[in-house]
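Hi R.,

Here are the chain sequences for the assembly we discussed:
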Amino acid sequence: MPADKPEHHHTEMPWNDPDAEPYIRIENVTKKFGDFVAVNDVSLNVYRGELFSLLGGSGCGKTTLLRMLAGFEEPTAGKIYIDGIDMADIPPYNRPTNMMFQSYALFPHMTVEQNVAFGLKQDKRPASEIRDRVAAILDMVQLTQFMKRKPHQLSGGQRQRVALARALVKAPKLLLLDEPLGALDKKLREATQFEIMNIQDKLGITFIVVTHDQEEAMTLSTRIGVMNQGQIVQIGTPQEIYEYPHNKQVADFIGSVNLFEGWMLEDEADHVLIESEEAGGRIYVDHGISAAPDAKVWVALRPEKIQIEREDRDEPYNCIKGTVTGIAYMGNLSIYLVKLDSGKEVKVTMPNQTRAAEQEIGWDDRVSLTWHPNSPVILLS
Amino acid sequence: MASNTEPVPGRASTGGRLHRAPGAASIGHVLKAMGIQPRLAVILIPYIWLILFFLIPFLIVLIISFAQLRIAQPPYSPLFICTDPTLADSSWTCFLQGHLKPDLYTQAYGYLVAEPLYIKAYWNSVVTAFWSTILCLLIGYPMAYGMARSSPTVRNALLMLIVLPFWTSFLIRVYAWIGLLKNNGVINNILIAFHVISDPLPMMNTQFAVYVGIVYSYLPFMILPLYANLEKMDLTLLEAAADLGCRPLKAFFKITVPLSFPGIVAGSMLVFIPAVGEYVIPELLGGSNTVMIGRELVNVFFENRDWPTASAIAIAVLVLLVVPITFYQYYQNKEAEAGK
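And here is the predicted structure of the full complex:
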């Protein structure tokens, strides 16, 4: 915690403040469908104004957890509190949540305007208020001129914005988004991501987003909960999750990563030395971890943190050699596949700072791979 | 080995092409050779069917409706008469010599308008069909809804039960209702045995029995299109409604019912249209005072042997039904346009 800006720290990162009151509390929630455990003893606190992402592959239980928050599923065990209120016996139509469905679930027989007004009408708001709020929200998502259209007359991106507007217009305590950007193309995704962040900023609503897309989660979220097989494997800010994954699963799921199996040679307070046959050399890390001596560990190394060069370097550690077996030119960066002498394949990315004309490294070149001792992450499981 | 890698000259020339074996010409080729576009042939088949079995019979009925009753064989006047009596024996020669002239009468239609019985029968038919449709809808909708929302195994069993009555003849099923409804029938006997009533309820030969018969017979035609519609409904829409604060019962009327409207229209047409012209049910279950147009048509045709009037009745029924059918068509087109 920086000493000069303590208040700022509290408001921006309430999860680090032991006194902060969580807005949404999920306590030991389990959901079983017959014998299948979809959500397994999940506990999670989300704070007011957060944009929390539940990230995981299909079938990891993230959507089930979201549906329990919305009230479409009853937890088999455990409690859910929203703003201090136990949600156990509250049906979906009485919950202070609104959901944006993956399929958008727009009412096909209603116009855009009627779709958005539907929720307010259920609350029996006066007609003038409904008109004003619908107009304001449609203006925000830039759909005013499509007000009288039916959903089938809209493009995918427009439908997605109607769904968002419909969920937002009631200004719920908690907004649930199920794969909000799943159906959009890349350009539109990026634009919408920022749009969602803007709206979130403007309205201060608490968001919980379910996604399988790590890039989406990284861009949007204040924090991410990585789920696997019904459990939350790690909770942290995008940076924490990316730079300090707890285990191989998380490391592998978030971005791409090179994993080297090895064992501990030295484990000191200020450094760790690992012998890895897979890497074909020793790996020196400039921060200590506490593990049993001779413990089996995995070293995770992100592709962008490796330097690739043709010179035959000779260093005592953090230097491995191999042959280039593949190059993918991606425009802004190039991906190199390097086959180590141990047979393991390593992925390296390099930004293309200059035009490719003087491209140095080619197929079948012998290369040395080096990295900063700060870069690797040591994983025990 | 070396000769194998060298291109064979004969093979190289035909290399890229696909050759159809001679005699393996497709139907399309045959049709093309006959000068018929295959696409046209596909739509030609239903058109030929409709022309043969709908349009031509319809025209015959239309022609007869403009003829005059005759005690003869056939029992109506010819469409054309020869003005030259000397040529009366050969209408062909008469036609060639230009002496053939159409001989049309609107008399039969005049009866329809003038005779209160027919107007009453038409009115009765429409009213009966209307209320039967409403009853079928009220009974059929919950059944279709229940089926669509039950588990797939139960659903198939229920679907089977809906279709099962079709395995027995329609006539026999209507006859069976006589056994249930008559004074010493099953229903009255049970009610008397349990001392609910002392005298049998007169149910047979009443309008009530006609409704029972029509609703019973046409209910599957209401349920099946409704079921097909409700079954494919996206249930997340109901979740979305609940999520936005709508209670289940209200969501049913705001979301489910409007979305099932095409099913309601299709089912209602399938009940209303045949119910208007229904003959067997009012004949067997209805009393002598139950006048319906189908029954009148049979009376006029078989008992009065008045083919022109009978034909006029048939044409009038058709015209009467064109209104709802056109509405149905219009609605279907609109649905198709809306897509998805």
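The longest strand of chain B covers residues 80-82. The first helix of chain B runs from residue 2 to 5.

Let me know if anything looks off.

Best,
T.
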